[in-house]
Amino acid sequence: MPIPRVHLPQPLAVGDEVTLPEAAAHHLVRVLRLGPGAPLRLFNGAGGEYAAVLTAVDKRRARARLQAFDPREVELPFRVVLAQAVSRGDRMDLTLQKAVELGVAAIVPLRSARSAPLPTGERLARRLAHWRGIVVSACEQCGRNRLPEVAAPIDLDAWLAQPPDGTRLVLDPEAGRPLRSVSLAAGALTLLVGPEGGLDGDELARAGRAGCVPVGLGPRILRTETAALVALAQLQLLRGEGGDAP
Question: Residue 3 carries which DSSP code?
Answer without folding.
Answer: P
